[in-house]
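Appendix B, Record 12. Input sequence as logged:
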Amino acid sequence: MNTNDTLKPSKVIDEEVKWDKSKTIISKTDSVGTILYMNDTFEEASEYNKIELIGEPHNIIRHPDMPKVVFKVLWDNLKQGNNFHAIVKNLTRTGRYYWVITDFDVEKDETGKITGYTGRRKALPENVVKKIEPLYKTLLEIEKVKGEKASELYFNSYLQEEVNSSYEDFVVNLFEQEASNSKENNDNAPSKESGIIKKGINWFFFGETDPK
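Logged structural output:
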């Protein structure tokens, strides 16, 4: 499905949108990413309303600062039926941005065929964004100059040579490092954010009702 260009912002603004970061953004799509449902927090963060986005491809909120290889890895995993944690910078209706980490339920019919996805997205600690953003900028520059394949080759080599892990493990490790740093810096006065992070990614999304 092609994106309705009239819904795209006329310009990109280097400004973070204000939204309630304690809440979870939720959306449902079909197997190809068409939006079927979005909650009120999605509306607040994206600055789109439900009437505008229902029936549109989810990539309508893809920010131009995001390298395509990240979405390739994400979709490769979803199509295999795997949940996937990715760090994503999204684009709002007015051209602003917001950073999130993803979590998915993969929905299947009685034959095991994937019919859709329920996505949950939470706001990121600023220190995690600061660690991932330089890598994304490098990937995007390679993509612009050398193409998507070259960007993918560098991405895979970076994960192997510099972090020795998969992309998803890299994301989880960033959270664990932030939890460790937060603990060291806040032993006497722990912040709410550090308490959430140190309990792990699943708790970050589900709280005390963590199904995993």
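Confidence is low (pLDDT under 50) at residues 188-199, 208-212.
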